[in-house]
Design goal:
The protein is an alpha+beta fold.
């Protein structure tokens, strides 16, 4: 049972393990004393009956527990399973359907163990370089290695360098810290070699006598000389991983299963009809009663643990970082000069754009390079504040949003701001091929490769659907590995009636040299509408090699359509008439001599004859099809139409959509070694033309952003066709967010054409586009776990009442004691200094980072930001915008030490923010205040100003309360 309670790993010092370990004494007391006492009391020491309960408890719980997760395998009896079924005609079920998929990569622990004298030893990961998804060095081995002494250089908020010594070991009171890095090495090198090296180095360190216990012998049969340190180092380097799933309602599930288990496997109700003696049922009643009481208490604690993790998973995550990519044409001369004077920025311009600006003046650079991209992350925070203060209608002017985050967490944070505003979602998820799983592009639980993948997609598609507009469309790239399952999944989420097409695409124009069976050279684009009440645009260009023209427009010779109804189109008197053309009478008679009907009314026919668009054949008449004109129904006139054709399910079987073009595009940009199968920009381009329209501002979302092809395609479409005004949102969690996706966006903004990593000019012009792109980094689920701390109540209120103490442990402990570490609103008094430990690599190395409460709150309330006035150095930052209800909104963030009651009121009075005159429908303020909210006029009319607490709103929105 200790394994199921996840307290059998006392050495793990991360996430939920650390939380449980901090309360290990209480949990062990409950498991080892309280529960056994209940069982023994119930049976008055009858060992056989007590043992029966223990056996049933073990049998029941072990059925569902699988290495840290509870798998919803509903047992009917023995090895026969049942699935929840509500009478659907067709349903898709999989093992983890009622769970959240949380696995995003390897998470390495910060590991602590305790010596016999009470001293603690910590293994601390300070640097990591992990292979993730399509990283080019996936074929390299990675090992934990003790760091070498070095100087760590950091930049503080003022832009000054801070140098600190980074040593492989450090003693601090009762704690010895040993620091490791996780680095790529040659495949021939082994982790055991690096453990040996670390042991040798540590033995030579001047470690005090208090910590010499690490060298105590812990021999095994195979390793007679093993020390305590070697034991723990070996455990640490085994890559401890977090759980993969969180159950959506574990308590309900286990309680239902418990009832079923008792009825079928304790009482054996199925066998009652064959029984003549019911005494065994009576004998079992006490066993059943005790089993149910004890099992329900265990379930209560497990449910508390699982529900707590679900709360952390669903919690809206903090914005851990926010910066902008912004072209020079949006900056003032003074701001451009600041960029010119900044060595990191000029170095980036040289590296990304091959632009050397030394010696250039502001006027020259603005003229020659208007679309050079300034990266505000390279500057002090004050520079970004000054840039934003000059921009009005900020959200309206922002063209793109790039989010470095797990995609579920990003989608969750975007729910209010982008609800029903996205026109097109395109995703290219991992295909769940054998190579995807082997090389880390999709990490899955053993024996649950397909159900893990379905849970991953299901969780994300369900909340992504909320962001689609009523005329929105979902486009999925997928291949045969998961296409059939994804089709049924999308039928469930979007409705089978909203299925549009499963269109094959030529993925490879090359014929592989060797295949065992059939060479697979295609994948699919699976298309769904949110509500199938709109038409796709025509996107296929015609073959115009034999085009002709008359007074009405262009047409292809011989391209006509019938006017005579076929045998399947029925008969109507309104279409049964004779018509004369050029002295010849035509009757609605088919080739068999059968009298049918014309498809048009006589009035429409006469209009067509007058226009001269009727074509006479040997036996009948037809209407000419124009490339750019349409004979409009109702008005009976020729009107302009899109000359292109509607797409068919064959049109993507074309070499211009093959993956090789995606690879070539990355090579042009000098970003070409990190992705094996990037989608070509041409594919996204035609899908954008299919689903978005010119002269309308549409938002395109890709939450498997990868190498950034979707952003590239949106920017290129807007550049080539000025009527397109699409915006883009890309989400990617891989470490290549910074090495591929972001620089790709910067490059395609600056120039249209690239070759060998250098922009190509046309008579000195690079064809760049004006852009403002926001870049966010979000807190991760692992960050949330690793910032948890349990704070015990000041006094033990339940010390004298065992029943209340048990209830607290089983139902309330985690929620109550973790509250301040999840969101400490007391820290909102100084909102610009709020910090959390944020992972800096995918392996778990972290640093204390200042959290952006301002940006987080904007997304929590769904604010459309118009202006930001950031004067945080003076203690004040204000945001103006419009909330989801259309109210003009003002948000006031203040350092409460610098802006007390009186100063805040003077600020509000100077801007006429009061119940009598305010232009704002709602005002949010942090900290305590005495701002008046009601004004009684001389005519006895009452005016009000809605003033809301940021803290209360933040707490409610973050946890969905």
């Amino acid at each position: 049972m200790q394994e199921i309670f996840q307290i059998n790993q006392p050495d793990l010092d991360f996430g939920i393990y650390r939380i449980l370990n901090s309360r290990q004494a209480q949990i062990n007391e409950f498991l080892q004393k309280t529960l056994p006492a209940k069982i023994n009391t119930a049976f008055n020491g009858n060992f056989e009956q007590a043992n029966s309960v223990y056996n049933h408890l073990y049998t029941f719980f072990s059925r569902y527990y699988d290495q840290g997760d509870f798998i919803s395998q509903r047992r009917y009896k023995g090895d026969t399973y049942a699935i929840p079924y509500a009478g659907e005609e067709v349903m898709l079920h999989w093992a983890n359907k009622d769970q959240y998929y949380t696995k995003s990569g390897e998470n390495f622990s910060n590991y602590i163990f305790t010596l016999d004298n009470g001293k603690k030893v910590q293994f601390r990961l300070v640097e990591a370089d992990t292979a993730k998804d399509n990283r080019k060095d996936n074929d390299q081995a990675r090992v934990f290695a003790l760091i070498e002494p070095k100087i760590k250089i950091e930049i503080d908020e003022n832009g000054d360098e801070i140098q600190t010594d980074m040593l492989p070991y450090e003693e601090n009171g009762d704690l010895l810290t040993l620091r490791f890095e996780y680095k790529a090495v040659n495949k021939k090198e082994k982790q055991t070699d690096y453990i040996t090296q670390a042991l040798e180095k540590i033995q030579n360190f001047a470690i005090s006598d208090a910590f010499q216990g690490i060298f105590n012998p812990m021999p095994t049969e195979k390793n007679k000389n093993r020390t305590l340190l070697e034991k723990y180092l070996t455990d640490y380097t085994a890559k401890n991983s977090a759980d993969y799933f969180i159950h959506k309602n574990l308590g309900k599930f286990l309680n239902q299963e418990l009832d079923f288990y008792i009825k079928n496997e304790v009482m054996n109700l199925d066998n009652i009809q064959d029984s003549t003696d019911f005494s065994h049922i009576e004998q079992n009643l006490q066993t059943i009663k005790t089993l149910k009481i004890v099992a329900k208490e265990i379930i209560a604690f497990l449910a508390q643990l699982e529900d707590f993790q679900k709360k952390l998973w669903l919690k809206k995550k903090f914005v851990a970082g926010c910066h902008y990519l912004i072209t020079l044409d949006h900056l003032t001369e003074e701001q451009v000069q600041t960029a010119l004077n900044h060595p990191k920025q000029t170095a980036q311009w040289q590296a990304l754009f091959n632009v050397e600006v030394s010696g250039l003046k502001v006027a020259e650079i603005r003229k020659n390079y208007p679309h050079l991209v300034v990266d505000t992350s390279l500057f002090e925070a004050k520079f970004q504040a000054e840039v934003l203060s000059e921009l009005h209608d900020l959200d309206e002017q922002t063209n793109g949003l790039l989010i470095h985050s797990d995609n579920f967490q990003a989608l969750n944070l975007l729910q209010e701001r982008y609800k029903e505003q996205v026109k097109c979602i395109y995703i290219d998820p991992p295909y769940n091929t054998e190579s995807d799983r082997k090389e880390g592009r999709f990490i899955y639980k053993d024996n649950f490769a397909f159900s893990s993948w379905l849970t991953l997609l299901s969780n994300r598609l369900e909340i992504a659907k909320n962001l689609l507009s009523e005329q929105g469309v979902l486009l999925n790239s997928i291949d045969d590995n998961e296409q059939s399952r994804l089709k049924i999944l999308c039928d469930e989420i979007f409705g089978s009636g909203n299925f549009i097409s499963n269109t094959p695409r030529l993925s490879s124009a090359q014929r592989p040299a060797q295949e065992n069976y059939v060479s697979i050279t295609h994948d699919y684009v699976l298309m769904y509408a949110k509500n199938k009440n709109f038409d796709f645009n025509h996107v296929i260009d015609r073959d115009l090699s034999d085009v002709q023209m008359d007074q009405h427009g262009t047409y292809i010779k011989g391209d006509t359509s019938p006017i005579l109804a076929s045998s399947t189109q029925g008969y109507s008197e309104g279409g049964d008439y004779d018509i004369e053309i050029n002295g010849k009478t035509y009757q609605p008679i088919n080739s068999k001599g059968e009298r049918r009907r014309w498809l048009w009314t006589k009035e429409r026919m006469e209009k067509a004859i007058k226009l001269g668009i009727i074509i006479e054949t040997k036996s009948s008449i037809r209407v000419r099809n124009y490339i750019d004109k349409e004979f409009q129904v109702g008005t009976n006139i020729l009107v302009d139409k899109d000359p292109r054709l509607i797409m068919t399910t064959y049109d993507l079987i074309n070499s211009k959509y093959a993956n090789s073009l995606g690879t070539e595009r990355l090579r042009e940009l000098n970003l070409g070694n990190e992705f094996d199968f990037p989608k070509p920009k041409s594919l996204i381009d035609i899908l954008l033309k299919l689903s978005t329209s010119p002269n309308q501002e549409h938002t395109v979302l890709d939450f498997f952003g990868g190498s950034g092809t979707t952003a590239d395609a949106v920017i290129e479409l807007n550049r080539n066709f000025k009527d397109y005004q699409n915006k883009y949102i890309l989400v990617e969690q891989g470490e290549y967010f910074d090495s591929v996706l972001k620089p790709r966006v910067q490059k395609v903004i600056f120039a249209k054409e690239w070759k060998d990593g250098k922009p190509q000019s046309d008579n000195g012009a690079f064809g760049g586009v004006s852009q403002i792109v926001k870049v966010l980094k979000l807190e991760s689920y692992e960050d949330t776990l690793n910032n948890l701390a349990l704070t015990q109540p000041a006094s033990d209120l339940f010390a004298q009442n065992q029943a209340l103490q048990n209830d607290y442990l089983l139902y309330y402990m985690l929620d109550v004691e973790s509250r301040d570490s999840l969101l400490n609103t007391q820290h909102f008094a100084k909102p610009f200094d709020y910090q959390l430990n944020i992972a800096t690599t995918s392996a778990g190395a972290y640093e204390a980072k200042t959290i952006d409460l301002v940006e987080t709150f904007n997304y929590l309330i769904g604010l459309r930001v118009s202006e930001i006035n950031d004067k945080r150095e003076n203690g004040l930052l204000t945001v103006q915008g419009t909330n989801t209800s259309g109210e003009k909104t003002l948000i006031i963030w203040r350092d409460c030490e610098k802006y007390d009651y009186d100063k805040l009121n003077r600020y509000l009075d100077s801007r006429d923010i009061n119940p009598q005159d305010s232009e704002f429908g709602i005002v949010y303020i942090n900290g305590d205040h005495n701002v008046p909210t009601v004004f009684a006029d001389s005519d006895e009319s009452v005016k009000t100003l809605k003033v809301r607490s940021i803290e209360a709103e933040f707490l409610s929105r973050m946890f969905g309360e």
